[in-house]
Structure formats: structure tokens, C-alpha cells
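Practice problem: predict the structure.
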Amino acid sequence: MPSPSYFEDFEIGATQEFGEYEVTQEEILEFAEKYDPQPFHLSDAAGKAMHFGGLCASGWHTCAMAMRMIVEQMPIENNGALGSPGIDEIRWKKPVFPGDVLRMRSTILNKKYSKSRADMGTIFMQNEVINQNDELVMSNKPIVMVKRRDIG
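Answer:
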């Protein structure tokens, strides 16, 4: 199923699954060293000493991997995305480990026409990141501004 492009294309309740992202130890370490240098993101031993069970990705790294999958499934042409004013309710449900293969499930929760701009609307979504064992590892609720097709 092609990804929706414009406000009118999004249907409340519609769900789309996409992506496949293999998590590597090297990437976990690189991200952690630069952005989130907590011990359990830098060392298998430190991860085992905590409740994680081993080296695990930063939650912020998981967000970045999810964003990559989102962008890769967006239409190249006729993309009506106008950015986002934010994300609500980020939840890191399970650790993400080296070797995990992640995918996304995105559901449209609601949509509203903009009160201040006739040429756009806002889409409210529920995103879920799922690993190869069908376990939910992260969820969030993005708010996305999208062009309207029916306005000039």
C-alpha cells in the first residue's frame, strides 16, 4: 500500500506496517558515545549488571531508527508532509539489542483541518516499533502537519 501523501489521503483508523531496520552493536556504541553515554549503552557487562540483560540501544537511538524507517517509506514526489510540532507519549517498552530487527506500525488516530491555514491539516498518529519477536519496544504519538490537496 502506498503511503498517504496529502491530508485527504489519511483515513482515521487506517494502519500501515513498514520498515525493516537491523540494529548493530557498532551503531549502538557509536550513538551512545556521541549522544547518550550511559554505561548500559556502552558496555555489555554494564547492561548485564542492570535489569537490561546486556548492551542495549538508547531510547533516543530507537527514536532515530524509527524516524529513518518513516522517512524511507514516505513518497519521494507529491509529499505533503510539512513537519511536526511535536510527539506525545514516547514510551520505551523493551530494550533494543544488537541483532534486533525493527519494523513500524502506524495508525491514524484523528485528523483536523488547520484553523489558521486553509492549505493544511494536522494528523494525529500512534506509532509502534516492533522487534523480530513481535514485541513492542517503543511507542509514540506524533502530530504531523500535512498539505491539503483540495486547496490550490
